[in-house]
């Protein structure tokens, strides 16, 4: 559970913005989406390798 302490004279908008930022940093939504369906470790590894190959292709020329 995320707890946001509202400071003196702080607007609700500012507190909500801090809450959203903290929520995003914890990665709760990513974790929930990952848990919706089981993904085999071999499939996860395959996607990681494909992502690495793509990154190497697109950003590999920048390391000269």
Automatic annotation (TrEMBL):
Superkingdom of source: Bacteria
GO biological process, one term: translation
Coiled-coil spans in chain: none
GO cellular component: ribonucleoprotein complex; ribosome
Keywords from the named record: Ribonucleoprotein, Ribosomal protein
Gene3D superfamilies linked to this entry: Ribosomal protein S8 (1.20.5.1150)
Endpoints of the signal sequence: none
MF GO annotations: structural constituent of ribosome
Family recorded in the similarity comment: Belongs to the bacterial ribosomal protein bS21 family.
Matching HAMAP family: Ribosomal_bS21
NCBIfam families cross-referenced by the UniProt entry: S21p
Name used for this protein in its record: Small ribosomal subunit protein bS21
Native organism: Dyadobacter flavalbus
Gene for this chain: rpsU
């Amino acid at each position: 559970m995320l707890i946001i302490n509202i400071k003196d004279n702080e607007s609700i908008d500012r507190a909500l913005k801090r809450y959203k930022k903290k929520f995003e940093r914890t990665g709760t939504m990513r974790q929930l989406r990952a848990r919706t369906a089981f993904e085999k470790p071999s499939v996860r590894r395959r996607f990681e390798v494909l992502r690495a190959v793509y990154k190497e292709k697109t950003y590999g020329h920048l390391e000269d």
